[in-house]
Amino acid sequence: MSATIQSTVKFPKLVTELPGPKAKEIVEKDHKFVSPSYTRAYPLVMKRGYGAMIEDVDGNVFLDFNAGVAVLATGHAHPEIVKAISDQAAEFVHIAGADYYYPQLAELAEKLQEETPGDFPKRVHFGNSGAEAVECALKVAMYATRRQKFIAFFQSFHGRTMGALSLTSSRAAQRLGFGRAALDVTHIPYANCLRCAYGKTPDSCNVECVKVIEERLFKTTCPKEEVAGIVVEAVQGEGGYVVPPAKFHKELRRVCDENGIVLIVDEVQSGIGRTGKMFAIEHFDVIPDVICSAKGIASGIPLSATVAKADLMNWHVGAHASTFGGNPVGIAASLKTLELLHNGYLKNSEEMGERMRAGLRKLQEKYPEVIADVRGLGLMIGVEFVTDRASMTPNPELRNRIEHECFLRGLILLGAGESTIRFSPPLMIDGDQVDCAVKIFDEAIAAAMNAQ
């Protein structure tokens, strides 16, 4: 796929069996030399990408509806992002923002103050990954409150570094072998209305998933005087792309306000236009004290930002820093990413998300026994599979077969949660690509069900 063809290719084109011969060689080498801890769903071996398309090392072309796990907000090799990276690299690639000044750092910090919810002074700490953004948020809360405990949610994912891992609870494999948690964290069920842990329906719900904090945790294992922060994903990501009701976040805000607790919202996967708004928490009309951002913030260049109320991030010199955090190349990519979002990709995320959910809901009508739910905001969409609608038993085996059948047909998707497939494409996709993805997904479901 030459550079002149790249910009016009919009649909999959497979020219070899999968994996192809070159891909097989690379997979074998990878298995020999690379950490076995990586989770590879299928043998995709990328050579290049453009927009929402990936070409592998054997010349097969795929439609990418995963975007590097919601990282490539503007797609692969967006020409304006590439130019921003190139222009900055030609000036200087790195200087440690923890020790020196450069205008790009302050420029993006000022921009993020405007982009994040809340009309009050804020401070920004830059890191390199979502886990680093979360680690920073934890330290901010502990430093500001002089408290040690945290409350988080089951099926959450906040990273794999030891502090963030204390919050993460999406899979046992992520904790297995690493001993006791580094931090004192109590987990409670997230607001998953399809599978309410308290046996409620949306009509009978009294936000028990938040009431339990006041009625049980504060009275037993988590005295409110010792809780530094509540850490929550605006939309649960690795847990299955679960969208909570608005009253869930509103009640969390109330509990934090009444008890001097810091509300930390993890927007690593849901932020930067993914849900049709710059940050997903805006859908719920709630303003957090600290917001964590990464993934899509720089369209594929490692960068994260922890944005906190200025009076919270008021710590002493040397309290927290990073050599590479706020790298100028990443900042250049981030500034251009935010510009592109405001120039049309935010609106496109909302519109294409509506189109995709409509198409996927037609598939839910076509396969009513196995598709339990189609949910999402913008281009953060989950489709959950079950063995049958009567028992609502999760069906990870079917989900995994569907994921593989999509790969064999040229559509790149990944699972999330126990039995959900996530759709997190670049925010620049068009309607034809949405329709193509839904069509392939339909074919993959049929093939996977026939293989049972």
List the helices and strands and how they pair.
Elements: H1 3-6, H2 21-33, E1 46-50, E2 53-56, E3 61-64, H3 67-70, H4 79-91, H5 103-115, E4 122-127, H6 130-145, E5 149-153, H7 162-167, E6 184-188, H8 208-217, E7 227-233, H9 246-259, E8 262-266, E9 290-293, E10 304-309, H10 328-366, E11 371-377, E12 380-385, H11 396-408, E13 411-412, E14 414-416, E15 420-423, H12 431-450
Parallel strand pairs: 3-13, 5-6, 5-7, 7-8, 8-9
Antiparallel strand pairs: 1-2, 2-3, 4-10, 9-10, 11-12, 12-15, 14-15
Helix pairs in contact: 4-10, 5-10, 8-9, 10-12, 11-12
Architecture overview:
With 452 residues, the chain is of the alpha/beta class. It has two domains: 3-78 and 346-450, Aspartate Aminotransferase, domain 1 (Alpha-Beta Complex); 95-326, Type I PLP-dependent aspartate aminotransferase-like (Major domain) (Aspartate Aminotransferase, domain 2, 3-Layer(aba) Sandwich), CATH 3.40.640.10. It has twelve helices and 15 strands. Strands 4-10-9-8-7-5-6 form a seven-stranded mixed sheet, sandwiched between helices. Strands 1-2-3-13 form a four-stranded mixed sheet. A hairpin with a 2-residue loop joins strand 11 and strand 12. Helix 5 (103-115) packs parallel to helix 10 (328-366) and helix 8 (208-217) packs parallel to helix 9. It is globular. The two termini are 36 Å apart.
